[in-house]
Design brief:
The protein is α/β, with parallel strands linked by helices. The chain is built from eleven helices and eight strands. The chain has helices at about 15-30, 50-55, 80-85, 95-100, 105-120, 130-135, 140-150, 180-195, 200-205, 215-220, 240-245; strands at about 5-10, 35-40, 60-65, 90-95, 120-125, 160-165, 205-210, 230. The longest helix is centred in the C-terminal third of the chain and has 18 residues, at about 180-195.
Amino acid sequence: MGRKFFVGGNWKCNGTTEEVKKIVNTLNEAQVPSGDVDVVVSPPFVFLPLVQSSLRSDFHVAAQNCWVRKGGAFTGEVSAEMLVNLGIPWVIIGHSERRLLLNESSEFIGDKVAYALSQGLKVIACVGETLEQRESGSTFDVVSAQTKAIADKISNWDNVVLAYEPVWAIGTGKVATPAQAQEVHAELRKWLHNNVSAEVAGSVRIIYGGSVNGANCKELAGQHDLDGFLVGGASLKPEFVDIIKSAL
């Protein structure tokens, strides 16, 4: 189907200027064949200009969030227009940490995705279930409802990457088995086929996030419906380069 492998690095709320420069240097020196994989790193807002100006040109930069509409009297928020003005092409929206810690609803996230796209940003949209939801057997219900909240608000998926991140696997060291990840990715693709279109189901990239590291990435990357990764802690370490190369 020709879906290009995608590796995102979510640095979360980490880093100093010196640490960020070191990470960028490691990435700039990495021997990665240009054009074979899309690489996007997502530093905290305060480091976006530094990373944008110093990172190699074949890797791209994402913000970790943006506001749901045009800027204005929204203290502490960053608007999609500001990101566009800085030349930042990507944004992560709907990460489970924002859903759970900041109570962002699926509907709010759908609105955010739609607004970011309308301003010309590309979006990494996150979905995923908690441990309680998985153990109760409602994984597919949860991720399909989260995906529906996005699908209800957008008509064009060309600039969307869907990230499946089981909440119980984020930063816990627990990883979904390759079979578990493939099962949910296949269900998401089936949902898109039945509810959006066969074309979108075939073309949209569905990436996996949740304690991905240099040791487990190769086997995960071999799954048919897994088109890449959204990497957390390991994206701050040199092994991120191994993860980038996992599908090559």
